[in-house]
Structure formats: C-alpha cells, structure tokens
Amino acid sequence: MDADSLHSDEQKKEYNRRTTDYGNGRIEIAAYHSPRFRHTGTGRTLSARMETSDEAQEERTRQQIYAIRRRMKGYALCNSFRWFVTLTFDPEKLNSSDYGTAKTALLKWCRKMRDRHGQFDYLLIPELHKSGAVHFHGLLGDVTADFVEAANPKTGKPVIRHGRQVYNLTEWEYGFSDCEEIESPERAASYITKYVTAALLTDKEMYNKKRYFNSQGLAKPAVTFGMDDNTDLDSFTPNFGVIETGEDGRNVIETGIYNLTADPETGALSQTDTDYLITTKKERRISRVFENASLGDAKTLSL
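The structure corresponding to this sequence follows.
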C-alpha cells in the first residue's frame, strides 16, 4: 500500500523547511535540499488492505517512533520541567510484570500528587525489563514534593552521580525512586526520548496501549511549514545533517537540522551550540564534529 492510499481525499503541500517554535526562545529549523510533501485536510481514506510485509511493518514502526519522539521532545522543551526521575516498583508492593496494574498505579499516584500539591506537570514513559517487569522514566515539574538526598544504605554517604547529588522522592509509595535535577532541558529531552524504542512499540504487552503519559495542559510547540531558499541558514552550523551525493557527483546537505535561539525583542536568530552529527545517506556512517568546527575543515571522530 502506498502513501497516497492513506490520504486519497487529502491535499499535498510542498515544503522544504519546517520550523518548530518551542515558545521560550528555542527554535528548531529543519531545512531540506529536496522539497517534501505533507498531507492536509481532515478526511482520510484507508485502503481495504494494509500491507503486512516485514519491510512495511518496520517502516510503520520507524514512523511511529519518530512521531512519538517528536511529540515528547516538544513537551520536554516547551515546559519547565525540573526533575528527571526513574520510578521502580517493589515486587512486594505491586506486581509490575502486569503492565495494566503498573500503569493504573502510576496514574493513581499522579492524581494523588496533583490533589496534594496542586499543579503537577509530568511526562512519563514505560521501560519494559527483560524479566517482564515495567518501570517508568520521566520528567516532573517544580512540584513542592518531598525530595531527599539519596544516601548509600551501607555507608550513609551521599549518592553522587557524575558529580551531582541524587535524590529520592519519598512520596513514591510503590517502591524505589531515583531523581536528578535537570541542568540542560535539551539533554533531558534527548534522554527521555531514547526510551521510545522499537521494542516498546512491538512488544505484545504494549499492543494498542499508550506509550507515554503526560499531564493535562502542557504547552506544545508551534510548527510551521514553508518554501524558502534557506540561504539565511548559511551562517549557521547544522546540528544534525544528512549528506547525499547528487547525480552530478557533488555532496549536498539533503537534511539539515539547526538548533537556534530567537531574540525575545527582535526575533533575530543566533546559535550557541555548534556541535553536530553528520551521516551519509548511503553508508549511514555517523561522525561527531566538535564545537567550533566548520563544515569545511572539521575533524571528525566516528562513533
């Protein structure tokens, strides 16, 4: 089944630039050398049969992962989350091998936290352990909850990770908690989205179930599409780029993604993060280019 059969009564619109405004000065621009198409309209007509080949299923899973990750990244960067948390269940208190039981307990706890503290912003995603047990990773807002410094139960010394204090959330009543204050929203967004995996989407336990949970009222990014010559981006470094060789043998950046900052008064764009990842479309080799390197003379380290 081709893409047109999914959108037979919708219109296609061409674009070569997607701008995501997170509402707090963070701007992400995706620029494409070759125009792309997006489907507009409310109608959608599905074909009678969905293609069931392994390749088709793999592509659908890939698209789902991409869509969920973008949605979660939008929530993570648009809202002022303070804590990155891991919430684990004590098997003596709850059977976390049953996903439905674990999910119900989590959402019940979230409602209790909202009733107790007022506004309670959260973005949580399950991770399925090989044993079948589930625990949750997520982001919490600046809630007035009881976070206490974690200590080694044997030595009593503070638990320090990467030079930073780890905390426990005493109000997590179902087991164990591991909490760290967020220093970089970008890193927190990247870290939380990595838990959206093919395993999460294809596990039988997760069939037809929500893959993440978020509180009501979270801000969302504004996304716009357009056609542009994109020359205004020449002074910036793409933080992620896909290089493709054209028919003339020349390499071009087929896809460039730029993480920029907008001046609150003038709207002028600037860039402070010039680290980037480059991958070739054909060989899928990824290189990390360090800060302050340019596309012309950068030294790369393969990952």
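The mean pLDDT is 84.
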